[in-house]
Each structure stands twice: as structure tokens, then as C-alpha cells.
Amino acid sequence: MHQDPGFEPHILSSIIDGVILVSPKGTILHANLATEEMLRQSLEAFRGRPVTEFFPGQPEVEAKLHDTCTRGTSFRDIECRVHPRAGETPLPVSLTLTPYQPLAETIQGAVLLLRDRSLVQELEETSRQLDQISRLGVLSLGIAHEIKNPLVAISGSAQLLRSRLNDPDHRECLDVVIKEVNRINRMVERMLGLANQRPPDFKPINIHRVLEEIILLEKQSAGGSYHYIQQYDPSLPAIPGDEDQLKQVFLNLLRNAREAMPGGGAIRVSTRFRSEYSIKTRQHPSPHQDIVVEIQDEGVGISDQHLRTLFTPFHTTKPKGSGLGLPISLKIVEDHHGKIKVLSREGEGTRVQVFLPLEQESP
């Protein structure tokens, strides 16, 4: 295979960002291994193809590439999306364009540097969600305490008054008052739960046993119209976690999956080691290996608009939902130094992935 003498393959193979060499006409001449991983295909499959094929619907990329190849203009950190082979999810990347001028000769093409921003965007989004939940928690704590005492007085007075009334219509009205007060009180308790979430009590737990207990509970309450498919990796070891808190997370996610299919259907629950990448955070700079618990339904899916607000407290599409289940679940998983990822398209069901570390970092 012919190698351009100015394009060092050994250096490029060690670069974790995608590097592509294109001709003055914009066709791909060479690329490194990281590019092959991004595009989900081998170099031989896309060599000679116009590089703009992988940036459809983004004319600004084509215009900047033309300027680079004709005028020698460089561009840095262009936010765009690269499209791998058909059927693959587009990847957010930061694109840098520089002219290719070996030995300071005339421009012989362009070099594209593609930096994967999917993990960065996920971490930024999770951080934004947690900041929002944290601020709401402080506000909820004050509001809940102010509401709770009057609620107790209202409920007690309504019950006392109801016991002294003989008129059925008046008693029915008071039944409504008592019912609504109890509903508000449950909401206040959930607000307090969001604000006063205790730190996890880490102990070794068998994640499969936790899932089996939750699924058994759901089977008893859901009836026979739902079918659970369990695909577990038996090699997964025990992980450090708070069993009660993680049960709350998976119970909420399984119920969400069931409610997405009011007519019944299959819910797939699987576990595996995470193979994509290790997580690094400012608080925990050492990368750690994760396990993944995935819950997949056959429901109607979630629109892009609702995906962006899934973890916003009090935002819900359910008629009787509180909008606190997912925010509380997110906080619990983050307290375990893990993360939640939701993958969904309208009409294609939803996959929720919960990533949990095999080891907890020392505080």
C-alpha cells in the first residue's frame, strides 16, 4: 500500500483524535486508526471518497475546506457532527482544518483533526442537570417546611369537620379536600427526599440479585401483559453501592419502561462491562471501569424536545407524574460516581443505561 512520505503512519496511529488527509479536491487520501473508529469502517472503505460525505447538511464545513485547500486558511474548533456509516448515530466533533504543505511547497490538500466531543457533552449536560437539582433541593427544603405545617392543620381540621357532618354532599366535598391535601403532602415528602438525600452507605452488592428482586416486584404489580427478558453477564463481580438507593433507581426506571407501553410488551434488562471508555471527572481524575445496566422498552419513544428536559425536576409527561423520579434517580447514581444515559427515538422505544463503577474512589 502506498504511503505518502510526509504522512507518518506510526505517529498518527498513536493519536487518539481522528486525523484525515484530503486532496485539493477534497477526497480522502489517508486517515489514522482513530478516524476508522469514529466512522465505524476501515480506511479502505472510505479512501477516495469526498470527505464532505461524512458532514451532510453542513455547508460551512465544505466552504471552510475549500478555503483551506485554495487559500491556505486554517480554522480551529469548528463545532459540527460527523456521520459514520449508515444507521450509526452522528458524532459531535470539534473540527480543525489546516493546509497540507509538505516541505513548505504549494498547498497539496488539507489535514482535518476531529476531536470527539460526545463524552464532553454528556459530562457537561450531567453537570448542568445536577447543578439544577442542587439549587432546587435547597429551595425545596425551605418551601417544604413552610408548607408541611399548614398541611397538617388543614388535613386535621378537614377530618374533624367531616366526622361531625351528616350531609353526604358535604362529607364528599371534604373527602376531596382530604385526598388533595394527602396528594400535596406526598409531593412535599418527595421534595424533602430530593433535598435531604442521605449519602450512600457503600457495601458490596450483587447487582443481579437487586435487579431480580425489583423485577419480581414489578411482575406482581404489572400483570401478565409484560414480558421481561433478562440478559446478565455472569462474570460481573459485586460492586460497591447502597442497595436501598439503587433499588429505588431501578424500580423507577422499570416502571417508566412499563408505563411507556400501556398495552404491554417486552422489557429487556441486561448487564455487561462497559467497553466504550472510562470516566474521568475533576473530583475523580483516575479513570475507573464501569458496569452497565441497560433497560430497554418497546414503547413510543421520546422526542428530542422531551429528551432535553428528562431530568428537569417537576417536568413530566405523565398525567399523574410528579416529575421527581428521574431527578432523584440521577442524583443517586451520581452519588455513586456513575451516570445515566437515555437513548431514544420516537416510535422506536427507549434504552436507559446506568453506569456504575466497580470501585469507589477514596474521598
What is the element layout, followed by pairings?
Elements: H1 9-13, E1 18-22, E2 28-31, H2 33-39, H3 43-46, H4 59-71, E3 75-82, E4 91-99, E5 110-116, H5 118-164, H6 168-195, E6 203-205, H7 207-222, E7 226-231, E8 239-241, H8 243-259, E9 265-273, E10 290-296, H9 304-307, H10 325-335, E11 339-344, E12 350-357
Parallel strand pairs: 7-9
Antiparallel strand pairs: 1-2, 1-5, 3-4, 4-5, 6-8, 9-10, 10-12, 11-12
Please tell me about this protein's structure.
- With about 375 residues, this protein is an alpha+beta fold.
- The protein has helices spanning about 10-15, 35-40, 45, 60-70, 120-165, 170-195, 205-220, 245-260, 305, 325-335; strands spanning about 20, 30, 75-80, 90-100, 110-115, 205, 225-230, 240, 265-275, 290-295, 340-345, 350-355.
- The chain folds into 3 domains: about 10-115, Beta-Lactamase (2-Layer Sandwich); about 120-195, Orthogonal Bundle (Helix Hairpins), CATH 1.10.287; about 205-355, Histidine kinase-like ATPase, C-terminal domain (Heat Shock Protein 90, 2-Layer Sandwich).
- The strands form 3 sheets. A 5-stranded antiparallel β-sheet has the order 2-1-5-4-3. The chain has a 5-stranded mixed β-sheet with strand order 7-9-10-12-11, with helices on one face.
- A hairpin with a 5-residue loop joins strand 11 (about 340-345) and strand 12.
- The longest helix has about 45 residues, at about 120-165.
- The two termini are about 50 Å apart.
